[in-house]
Recover the amino acids of this structure.
């Protein structure tokens, strides 16, 4: 089996597993609990951000497999190498291909970092909601204890669910990014080998 086919199969299996986990969360009522925590808008934004990052991974992965496929065609490797030559002096440099390929992964890594940051932000905001109404006066007044406890529970739910969803989304995106990075590493080795062959004047 070719590496590019194996790469797509790994991507498919990984995301099927993630979809199964998401389905189990829905079936067991965890999704409903998250939506009832008061963080529905916050969570919807994080889901949209994750979907955007996942789409970039998918788009880049398909592009990577196409480039790997094209490298197997006679004479195509030379054209691919030209795309990654150092335009400043025309020489082949290992750093050039590493930087250019890593630049395609960086936006996805940034989105994963944003998901984590949003999760932590939700944690802080949830604790602010939870403890915002807790005062010495409300704690000593039996009539105010009920609303205070309700606000405390609501805030804690908000904090915990936003943290969980942010970290889970970032982790899932990082797993997909790892596959993409491995694909680019394989492509990098092929381009470097082709570039060395051209410099050495090999067949």
């Amino acid at each position: 089996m070719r590496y590019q086919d194996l790469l797509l199969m790994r991507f498919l299996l990984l995301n099927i597993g993630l979809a199964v986990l998401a389905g189990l969360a829905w079936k067991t009522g965890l999704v409903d609990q998250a939506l009832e925590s008061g963080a529905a808008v916050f969570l919807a934004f994080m889901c949209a951000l994750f979907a955007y990052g996942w789409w970039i991974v998918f788009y880049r992965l398909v592009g990577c497999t196409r480039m790997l496929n094209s490298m197997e065609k006679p004479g195509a490797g030379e054209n691919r190498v030209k795309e990654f030559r150092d335009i400043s002096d025309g020489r082949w440099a290992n750093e050039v291909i590493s930087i250019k390929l890593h630049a395609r992964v960086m936006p996805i890594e940034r989105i994963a970092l944003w998901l984590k940051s949003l999760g932590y932000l939700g944690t802080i905001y949830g604790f602010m909601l939870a403890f915002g109404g807790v005062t010495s006066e409300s704690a000593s007044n039996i009539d105010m204890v009920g609303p205070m406890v309700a606000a405390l529970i609501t805030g804690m739910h908000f904090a915990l669910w936003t943290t969980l969803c942010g970290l889970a989304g970032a982790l899932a995106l990082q797993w997909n990014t790892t596959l993409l990075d491995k694909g680019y590493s394989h492509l990098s080795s092929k381009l470097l080998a082709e570039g060395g062959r051209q410099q050495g004047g090999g067949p």
Notes: Residues 3-197 form one domain. DSSP finds eight helices and no strands in the chain. Residues 86-90 have pLDDT under 50 and may be disordered. The longest helix spans residues 142-200.
